Amino acid sequence: MGRRRRGRGRPRGAARNAEHCGAASVPRKAAMNERDALLNEFAQGLRPMSEGVAWFDGLREEEQPEVLRCLRHHCVQARALTEDAPESIRRAGLRPTHTPAVLLSRGRIDEQLGKIAGLEPLDERRKAFRLLIVLLSIADRRRRDRFCSDGCGHWWHQLSQTE
């Protein structure tokens, strides 16, 4: 008789990475949905980057790293590649010498995205936000073209239809 696998401390049916986008002051499900939708609207160009940066700057200091971790998660889920770095840097309006750009260009993208999400100074966080939004845009566009061109059930690919 095989061993029965136990849950990993999360409620039945809870998302494996539900912690990635939650905010302590808002119920987790509401925070994820609103924040995820907003980040995807920025990435899809449904809202301008200037609005995104203003929104990010308006967050409390402790919320900004949460948003960057959330974006990191979305980029990983969208299968961002190291090869996406040059175009992401260019479209985000960053110099290749800016810290987030240097990190993204170094390879091992999962590891580098974690470092980018953990940047401390506000100006570095702002650059990281812009870069991760653009990286998500590029990776998700590729995913949409390859896997979702005949339609899909991803709610974030339906945002433009709900506006």
Automatic annotation (TrEMBL):
Residues 1-27 are annotated as: Disordered. It comes from the Bacteria. Residues 1-13 have a biased composition (Basic residues). It holds the Pfam family DUF5958. This is Uncharacterized protein.
